[in-house]
Amino acid sequence: MTATPNDLRTVDPQLADLITAEEGRQRDTLKLIASENYVSSAVLQASGTVLTNKYSEGYPGRRYYEGQQYIDQIETLAVDRARAVFGTEHANVQPYSGSPANLAVYLAAATPGDTVMGMALPMGGHLTHGWTVSATGKWFNAVHYNVGRETGRVDMDEVRDLALRERPKLIFCGGTAIPRTIDFPAFAEIAKEVDAVLVADIAHIAGLVAGGAHPSPVGHADIVTTTTHKTLRGPRGAMIMATEPYAKAIDKAVFPGLQGGPHNHTTAGIAVALHEAGTPEFSSYAHQIVANAKALADELQSRGFALSSGGTDNHLILIDLTSKGVAGKPAAQNLDRAGLETNYNAVPYDPRKPFDPSGLRLGTAALTSRGMAEAEMREVARWIDEVVSALASENSDTIEKTVGQVHGEVSELTGRFPVPGLG
C-alpha cells in the first residue's frame, strides 16, 4: 500500500515499525493469557474511526456538547445490544475500564467506611474488591472470603458465616483467577439475608455468559460489572449492568461522579462486539472455549501438573508448579521465549511472594478465536510440559535446546491458524 502524507508510516515510522513488530509477535505466538483475546476486523475498524474526535459528556439526549446526532445513536445501539445479549434491565457502556466500573459501583451503592466483602486477592479475587493496596481497601472496611485449602473452591457456608458476622453493605462475587462456576444464586441468597447489594464482577466470563457457556448473574445480582475484552472479544472498555432501582445511581456515579466524556470510538467497538456476541456462531465459540480449557486441563493433569481446584469449568486454568520444582516467573518467561504467552500468578495459600509466585495462569479464549480445538490444546500441554521439565533440569543447554525446539513447533502451528483481525 502506497503511503500518503498523513499515513502513520510517513508521519511516525518508528512507531509504525513497533506496531508492525507487535502484529508479527501476535501472529507467531500462542496467546494463553486468560485476560487477553483477539478482536475481529470489524471491531478494529470501529475502534479506529473519527469517533475519537468527538467529546460527549453526558448521556444520549442529555449532552453538554452539540453535534451528538450520531454519537447518541451509537451509544444507544451499544446499550440496547448489551441489554439484549445479557437480558438486563439497564446498561451503562461508558466506563473506561473494569476498575473504574467497580469504583462507580462503590460510589453508587456505598459510603466510605462501609463494610464491603469480596474474595481475597491471593485466592483469585480482584484488587478492586477491597484488597489492601487498592483505594477500595483504604476507603472501605473490607473483609474477605477464601477458598478451601484442599478443594480450591469457595465454601458458601463460610461466605454466609462471614456475611452474617460482618453485615457488609456490598458483596462482590467473581475475580481474576477463578476456574470454577460461580454460584450466583447462593451468593444472592446470602446477600438478601444480610440486606447487602450483590455485585457480580464477570469481567473474565462475560463472553461465556453471553454465549450460554456459563450461568448468568442477571436475575440474581443487583449490579453486574464487566470488561468488554477477554472472553467477550471486544475493545478495552467496560460496562455496568443493573436492575432498575440502581440505574440512576450507577449513571450518576460514572458521569459526573468519576469521569468526563466517554471514549466514543470504544463505544462503537463495544457495539460491534455485542452484535457479534448475539449470534449463534458466538455461542458455539463460547462453548468451544470451555471444551478447549477442559481438554488442556486434562492433558496437563495427565502429565503430572497440579491444578488449583483440580480443573476448570470455564476458560481459565491455574497451575501450581510447586511439585515440578519450578517457580511461576521463570516458567512464564521461558514459555514466552518458546512462543507460549502466559502470566505467572499466585495460587491459593501461595508461600511465595506475588512478584515471584508458584503458579501460572492460562486461558483458552484467544486460541479458540484462532480456530484451535481440543487436538491443539493437547499439543500446547505437551509443549508446556517440555519447557517446564527442561527448567527443572537446571541444565542451560537442555533449556535452550528445548525452548528452541518448542518455538519451532509453535511457529508451525500458528502458521496454520490466522489471527482474527490480522489474517
UniProtKB/TrEMBL annotation:
It comes from the Bacteria. The gene is glyA. The modification N6-(pyridoxal phosphate)lysine is found at K230. Its cofactor is pyridoxal 5'-phosphate. It catalyses: (6R)-5,10-methylene-5,6,7,8-tetrahydrofolate + glycine + H2O = (6S)-5,6,7,8-tetrahydrofolate + L-serine. One of its GO terms (cellular component) is cytosol. Its main location: cytoplasm. The record marks H229 as: Plays an important role in substrate specificity. This is Serine hydroxymethyltransferase. Belongs to the SHMT family. Its EC number is 2.1.2.1. HAMAP family: SHMT (MF_00051). It is found in: Cytoplasm. It comes from Phytoactinopolyspora mesophila. It holds the Pfam family SHMT.
